[in-house]
Amino acid sequence: MDKNNERECNEDLIRERRKCNFNIEELTNIVDGGKARTARRREIQRLLINDPEFLDEIPQDYMSHEDRYSNELRKSAHLMQKLADQESGHDIHQDIGALTGILKDGNPLMVHLSMFIPAILGQANSEQQEKWLGRSLRNEIIGTYAQTELGHGTFVRGLETRATYDPTVEEFVLHTPTITATKWWPGGLGKTCNYCVVMAQLYTQGRCYGPHPFIVQLRDEETHRSLPGITLGEIGPRLGLNSNDNGFLKFENHRIPRTNMLMKHSQVLKDGTYVKPLHNKLSYGTMMLVRVGIVGACSRSLQYAVTIATRYSAVRHQSEIVPGQPEPQILDYQTQQYKVIPQIASVFALIFSARSLSKIQSSVTAKLKDGNTDLLPELHSLSSGLKALSSSDASWGVEVCRLACGGHGYLASSNLPRTYTGTTCAITYEGENTVLLLQVARYLIKSYRSIGKETGASSVSYLADQTSLASSSSSFSNKALVQAFKLSALSLVAEAEARLQKLCDMGQEFYHAWNYCSVLLLKCAEAHTRYYICEKYEQTVDSLKASEGVKNVLQSLCRLYLIYHITLTHGDFLKCGALTPRNIAVLEGEMCDLLAVLRPQAVSIVDAFDIPDELLGSTLGCWDGNVYQRLYDEALKSPLNKTDVPDAYYKYLLPLMKSSL
Ligand SMILES: CCCCCCCC(=O)SCCNC(=O)CCNC(=O)[C@H](O)C(C)(C)COP(=O)(O)OP(=O)(O)OC[C@H]1O[C@@H](n2cnc3c(N)ncnc32)[C@H](O)[C@@H]1OP(=O)(O)O
Ligand SMILES: Cc1cc2nc3c(=O)[nH]c(=O)nc-3n(C[C@H](O)[C@H](O)[C@H](O)COP(=O)(O)OP(=O)(O)OC[C@H]3O[C@@H](n4cnc5c(N)ncnc54)[C@H](O)[C@@H]3O)c2cc1C
Fold first, then answer.
1. Residue 198: strand pairing partners
2. DSSP 141
3. Domains and CATH numbers, the chain
4. What residue ranges carry the coiled-coil annotation (predicted)?
């Protein structure tokens, strides 16, 4: 699509784009993280979009379960080959954002890239990396991360798969003792992978040392048949991601060499002696890494959904605002603006938080190399909280965008249903959100109780600022609003701690008191993480070196985000005295003003997300706004439209209609 050729474009969208009062390319660079990143993303996307191998012969929704898998595997393999062939060399992890949209509905090689290779990098010692890393990077072996079992996903300590060391032959015996110990869910496990990292309970010298990672060959490298002692299969259709082959796995006393235990952090020596890691949660490192990546992935899903909903809202006309006047664009309804524009604001919140989290992760990883694990709890807490809020915000945001498109948003060709199912899975996988938020709460309460002792962890240092509890601000600058978030979080933590203490003082065991307070604890974790996101948003926009137009847009979006979230949870702000009912009313009014200010820029802001039509894959969201023709053309692709009268009519309907004659 030639974006300079207005003749091909819907008139409403032309008008919207003429209202733009900022430099779109500059905003695109901010979204990508710099000019060079934008150029790199575009280069990769061009490479993919122009390649006919990535086209589907028929829309995926009309394919059988097997064909969906096979079609997506074909494209995934082609993608890997293509990226490997690039002369410049390619960092798939760096460029992962550029690939969004090219593979649809689950990619059978995704967990190979996002967990198997990172698990080898993070958990294998140098000899082991020598043996497996190169092979897996060259795709000579394909792996997955097999942790979850039928009986346990959340409670990793409760896993049942056993790895029992036999020093006489220096081997581990992997065994699935019960049906509930069956590995269940790992992406690509059913049919694609021939290797995997298995998390199993380590037994040596008669003692259990908890879950540890082992690398296990599952299938013959020549025939791809599953090896003796290993049962493998696919788990069946899911809400979404149905092109993946999420699988199950059982071991029947399957033996692997001792050196297949990933031994970067803990070891079992030849005689069976166990050597402890520096920190006993280092074996959870792969999960933490992926949680960080999920925050960025969620911002990308939301960019897709909000691009579709905003453009469609500019093209769609319905009902009337002024009786008797022409039907307005639905984007002119304030309620529609309230659905769509806060989601645009949310995209930037997630982008800036993801960047801040990755920086912290890099510094923790660097410290770990020197044996320093001090900041691991801080990273665990932040990555858990941000994974949870980004996935729930993005899922809700995508769903709101779908609803904002009315009936057409329910059509598969809008690409909103698939964007939703591809986002909501992140609420559950890589640590279910409630569970992760309770981990954050645990860290908050512990930090609150150790006020006065230096923790060195910056995200919770505000808990020591007791004086702020007594003060509410009369100013409404963005900084002051961020302070209100801080006060709300601090006051919730103080309340939860007091409630816990009271129950304990009354004789309850701590863990019962914890469960009894867990709804409140969840709120603490959410408020703390929201405060973190708001603070990063405000700081990033404030310190941004940008043109006036771009800065104004981002400042308005940031302010909208702050006020939107205050209004959603205003009870917490009132309860702690951070804001008064009058303040809330004023902010609610200002939120409506901000919607009106941002409304004329909305199409241009989503244009700045710069998602090519071929990747957006939506009848409703295309750049030219030619929505109705596209909807009609897509409908014609339905196999039921191949004939005027379907066979089913003769088989079932005709006999029914004639039966009463
Ligand atoms: C896009 C890519 C596609 C991805 C596809 C999806 C792939 C997957 O889903 S793979 C499977 C993912 N599975 C999970 O995430 C399981 C979630 N569960 C867990 O992580 C753990 O069971 C968890 C953290 C909830 C509890 O762990 P557990 O060992 O019971 O610890 P727990 O007793 O609660 O806490 C003990 C201490 O360890 C700390 N801790 C727990 N985890 C960590 C960690 N990763 N790092 C540092 N400290 C940690 C706690 O903070 C606590 O500290 P303290 O005692 O000082 O308060
Ligand atoms: C699409 C998809 C892909 C996946 N890919 C992989 C993969 O590649 N590899 C892999 O190993 N796994 C994978 N998983 C599994 C995933 O990691 C688990 O489903 C997830 O960790 C949640 O565990 P669970 O299913 O046991 O849920 P449960 O823990 O049984 O959760 C059920 C309910 O119980 C609640 N609950 C549980 N424990 C607590 C608690 N302590 N406190 C309060 N409430 C609690 C939860 O909040 C939830 O409401 C995948 C899952 C999905 C959906």
1. 146, 214
2. S
3. 1-32+286-454+478-638 (1.20.140.10), 112-277 (2.40.110.10)
4. none
How far, in Å, is the centroid of ligand 2 from the Cα of 379? 21
Please name the residue whose Cα sits nearest to atom 28 of ligand 1. 157
Of 149, 171, 430, 538, which residue is the catalytic one? Answer: 430
Judge contact between 618 and 416, C-beta under 8 A: yes
Please indicate whether residue 432 is annotated as part of the active site: no
Dist CA 420 CA 301 (whole Å): 8
Convert the pLDDT of each residue in 132-161 to its tens digit. 999 999 999 999 999 999 999 999 999 999
Smallest CA-to-CA distance from 534 within 341, 349, 294, 343 is with: 349
Could you give the C-alpha distances from 633 to 64, 273, 328, 629, in angstroms and in order? 22, 67, 26, 6
Bridge partners (DSSP) of residue 183 are 149, 249
Find out whether 260 and 176 touch, Cβ atoms under 8 Å.
no
Model pTM above 0.80: yes
**HSE on the CB side for 603, CA within 13 Å?**
25
Of the listed ligands, the closest to the CA of 288 is 1
Residue with tokens 């890589």: 430
Which of 164, 224, 154 is CA-nearest to residue 192? 224
Tokens of 640: 């039921």
- Best residue for ligand 2 mutational test, from 218, 435, 512, 521 (most atoms within 8 Å of Cβ): 435
Q: Ligand 1 pocket, 110 CB below 6 A?
A: yes
Q: Closest ligand 1 atom, CA of 297?
A: 1
Which of 260, 266, 146, 151 minimizes the C-alpha distance to 209? 266
The DSSP letter of residue 4 is T
User: Which tens digits make up the pLDDT trace of 79-137?
Assistant: 988 887 775 555 666 677 778 788 888 899 999 999 999 999 999 999 999 999 999 99
Classify residue 120 by burial, with Cβ atoms within 10 Å: 0-12, 13-18, 19+.
buried
Closest Cα to atom 23 of ligand 2? 153
Determine if ligand 2 sits within 6 Å of the CB of residue 432.
Answer: yes
The verdict on the CB of residue 621 being under 6 Å from ligand 2 is: no
Cα distance between residue 538 and residue 535, in whole Å: 5
